[in-house]
Amino acid sequence: MIRAEGLELTYKDGTRALEEIGLVLEPGELVYITGPSGSGKTSLLKLLMGMEFATGGSLEVLGERMRRGNSGRIRKMRRQLGPVFQEFRLIPGSTAMENVLLGLRFDGTPHGKMKEYAEEALLRVGLSQKLHAKVERLSWGERQRVAIARAVARKPRLILADEPTGNLDRENALLILELLASFRNPETTVLITTHATHLIEGQETASILHLDGGRMRLERPVSL
Ligand SMILES: Nc1ncnc2c1ncn2[C@@H]1O[C@H](COP(=O)(O)OP(=O)(O)OP(=O)(O)O)[C@@H](O)[C@H]1O
């Protein structure tokens, strides 16, 4: 599902964000990437999503080599990704339903299925009462749920969530992590970055990877 070897990312201004990252993730894993601010968590997700390209080493995501020359195939592969961005990236002035539908429009979902998929996803995240509410009328936790619904509506094989609990209190943060983890299944891997290590302590069946200064170490191995 994900294979990285000697992965490096140095930004154009010379910042070394990631160094010597080695990573193998299989279908069905639940993985947390922890680490302090600036340790490279978002940078790693950007590489996995094809929003940046590595400056060293190799990376394969869902069978595709993540390098510049492969952008056509990467674009197709991205339809199987469910990204949840740190800042949500919802469309202001639009409803929860419209936001999820928009996410489906560009990823090859058959037109006749779009509404069904969007409703199903919004129900799954507990927003059945808010389908037609404009996003700016929603609480932060609800907005996060819309962002998750948009990511999962296409039934992705890899869910990538960047700091999904950032704006939430402890109780809501735990609910959001539980919700994201619930999408893990034998075909679907869920990868979540968080600096809130105290929230994931009780997770028995997850892998925890720790980034520090762009380098990675395994905190706890997988026990599926
Ligand atoms: N576009 C960019 N250009 C140059 N440097 C960048 C860029 N994006 C991130 N960085 C730098 O790369 C390093 C890793 O940043 P990154 O955003 O990946 O960390 P993070 O662990 O996600 O942090 P946070 O928890 O604060 O979101 C930091 O030193 C950051 O300043």
UniProtKB/TrEMBL annotation:
Keywords of the record: ATP-binding, Nucleotide-binding
Gene Ontology, cellular component aspect: plasma membrane
Signal peptide: none
Gene Ontology terms, MF aspect: ATP binding; ATP hydrolysis activity; transmembrane transporter activity
Domain of life: Bacteria
Domain named ABC transporter: residues: 2-224
Tagged with keyword Ubl conjugation: no
InterPro entries assigned: AAA+_ATPase, ABC_transporter-like_ATP-bd, ABC_transpr_LolD-like, P-loop_NTPase
Name of the featured protein: ATP-binding cassette domain-containing protein
Organism: Anaerotalea alkaliphila
